[in-house]
Amino acid sequence: MNKIFLFDALREATDEEMQRDKSVFVLGEDVGHYGGSYKVTKDLHVKYGDIRVLDTPIAENSFMGMAIGTAMTGLRPIVEGMNMSFLLLAFNQISNNAGMLPYTSGGNFSIPLVIRGPGGVGKQLGAEHSQRLEAYFQAIPGLKIVACSTPHNAKGLLKSAIRDNNPVIMFEHVLLYNLKNDVPSEEYFLPLDKAELVRSGNEITIITYSRMRYHVIQAVDILLKDGYDPEVIDLISLKPIDIESIAKSIKKTHKLIIVEECMKTGGIAAEIIAQVNDQYFDFLDSNIIRLSSQDIPTPYNGNLEKATVVQPQQIVEAVKSMLS
User: Is the per-residue pLDDT at 160 higher than 90?
Assistant: First the structure.
């Protein structure tokens, strides 16, 4: 095992896949000589050249369209969004082209495309740089969506995404790049459609993903001292949602709390609640609680920004309220 940063895990995955397969290349703003906003592509241009690590103009719709075109013709592009918020400028290309071309072409084209980059609420990045776009893209047919949360799953998921023949969006949280943890030294892959059981418990199921995994872990540390026994699941796959893993847990605990950084209205939690109520309502002993960000643009002010996002103490209170 090697203890590395999350951004290094992503860099290793990219490097290994580029070395293995000459059809893999990276493009995006400042991915080349600058090494990417968070150094995920640092020095790769030295090893692979300026064509396979391609610096693009500030024109998201243009280089996303180019990436989709190259995927149609046999290459395997990795698009880095300097900030995932900017990908709204390429929403048409991602939805109408990447997501739908395999279907509208009658199966004549596959789109082996990876779109990855930083998102989420950082530290005073302002509203336009604090977007959580997972719910925007979840409604688009033909896409796979994952959210990494550890160096281990970041590397395993990215390698699987690069080899997948479908378009995959991989959300990375801006505050997790400097997270350091163990990663196997041998090659490994992780499935793009499975949740991770973070902690086994019997009293209540807590579902989360991305940065909120760590807010949940902080809350669980407090709850354990008070004698509670929660089960924690990291979704990882946001499309498709691993409803089987969720159902297995609900059948054991009969109670469910969902913690997300996404907005409450139309968020990932809303989709989980709909699926659980449709298929597993009879296993619930109480109403599902969802803890989500407030439906407002993220404030620049640090204290106000913190107030918009779910904090560990809110999770503790929600668990105690449900179990009382």
Answer: yes
